[in-house]
Amino acid sequence: MADTKRTRDIQIRSTNLEIDTIVNQLRALRIASLESRKRHDRPPKLPSRKILAQVAEGLSAALFPNRLGSSELSNEGIDHYVGHTLNVTLRDLMVQVQHELHYNSGLESLSSEDRERSVMITQSFAKRLPHIRTLLDSDIIAAYEGDPAARNVDEVLVCYPGIMAITHYRLAHELHQLGVPLIARMISEIAHSVTGIEIHPGAQISGSFFIDHGTGVVIGETAVIGQNVRLYQAVTLGAKRFPVDENGTLVKGNLRHPIVEDDVVIYAGATILGRITIGRGSTIGGNVWLTHSVPPGSNITQVQTPNKGSG
User: Fold this and answer.
1) Residue 45 burial (CB count, 10 A)
2) Fewer CB near the terminus (10 Å): N or C of the chain?
3) pLDDT tens figures, 189-204
4) What secondary structure letter does DSSP report for 126?
5) What secondary structure, in 3-state letters, does 89-126 show?
6) What CATH number belongs to 44-197?
7) Helix, strand, coil proportions of the chain in percent (round to 5)?
8) How far apart are CA 109 and CA 173, in angstroms?
9) pLDDT of 91-150, one tens digit each?
10) Tell me, what's the pLDDT at 308?
11) Which sequence spans correspond to the domains of the chain?
12) 235 CB contacts (<8 Å, ≥6 apart)?
């Protein structure tokens, strides 16, 4: 028994020694990284992905309390629940906004101006929640009406990954517009990691938007999507090329993603690249590779190999 205890003590001391060594090595690398960015004396405090996941969940529950909130709610208690959830969630969001503003400023401490700005951003975002709910209602109806497997709108809301991705996108898009793009991107990427659907919060997407199945869908930063558009899995609305400046650095912010007009359907695996326009009412077939604009009412399919007949 004594030998066993002695062996265990030696193993514990050995493990602690190894951990101490690793901690020291990681500290040296961390300090070197901060020094290279001239942030050694004031390491940045970024927004928390964990807290933002809770914020997105809280906002979703406030938007749809009967379906995404507490299962114990009574009709009399819904408004109290929504109000309490918003109070807690928006307060958490405001702190994360402060972190992003502080990070961007490069100052040692949060300025009074950025503190006031964080309040204004959070208040402005809160006022947009009814608008977001209206858009999401249209998205849910579009999914229900566009999928014969959907039995009711409640099933669409709680089950469809496309609705989760669009919900996160619509929350993130408002924050992106209000000047906190890092938080917006983090909220979108939380949904991306769960659903496999990547929607950049800078994209502009109108109502009645339906992503069916969804896995592998990519919608780029400057994409513009009209009303009543439907995408299937593995559709890409991407950039055709990435221009660089005289120093060889990628040019940021240029309009490089497609414009998809109203009432367009894009089937699975289609890749649409560049600042091109897909005309209203068009249908883009599966696995199509498209790099040029098409007029309204187009029906684009893969080029078929001529049938030469049998010998």
Assistant:
1) 12
2) C
3) 999 999 999 999 999 9
4) H
5) HHHHHHHHHHHHHHHHHCCCCCCHHHHHHHHHHHHHHH
6) 1.10.3130.10
7) 50, 10, 40
8) 28
9) 999 999 999 999 999 888 899 999 999 999 999 999 999 999 999 999 999 999 999 999
10) 47
11) 44-197, 216-311
12) 216, 217, 218, 266, 267, 268, 269, 270, 271, 272
Q: Which SS3 state, helix, strand or coil, does residue 198 take?
A: strand
Q: Are 201 and 170 in contact (CB under 8 A)?
A: no
216-311: which CATH topology? UDP N-Acetylglucosamine Acyltransferase; domain 1 (2.160.10)
Q: Is the dihedral of CA 189, 174, 137, 271 positive or negative?
A: negative
DSSP E strands, 50-100: none
Q: Is 248 exposed, middle or buried (0-12, 13-18, 19+ CB in 10 A)?
A: exposed
- Strands 236-238 and 271-273, by their bridges, are parallel
pLDDT tens string 10-40: 555 555 668 888 889 999 998 888 888 766 6
Q: What pLDDT was estimated at residue 114?
A: 96
Closest CA to 264 of 288, 245, 248: 288
Alpha helices by DSSP H, 128-262: 129-146, 153-159, 161-177, 181-195
Matching CATH topology for 44-197 and 216-311?
no
Distance CA 294, CA 298 (A): 6
The residue to which tokens 């990070």 are assigned: 103
Residue found under tokens 């998809």? 260
| Gyration radius (Cα) of the chain, Å | 25
On whether the CB atoms of residues 177 and 210 are closer than 8 A, the answer is no
Largest CA distance in the chain: 88
CB proximity list for 192: less than 8 A, separation 6 or greater: 165, 198, 199
DSSP 8-class letter at 231: E
Q: Which residues contact 6 (CB under 8 A, 6 or more apart)?
A: none
Exposure b/e, 83-113, CB count within 10 A at least 16 = b: eebbeebbebbbebbbbbbbbeeeeeebeee
Task: Reduce the DSSP state of residue 205 to 3 states and report it.
Answer: strand
**Residues recorded for the chain:** 311
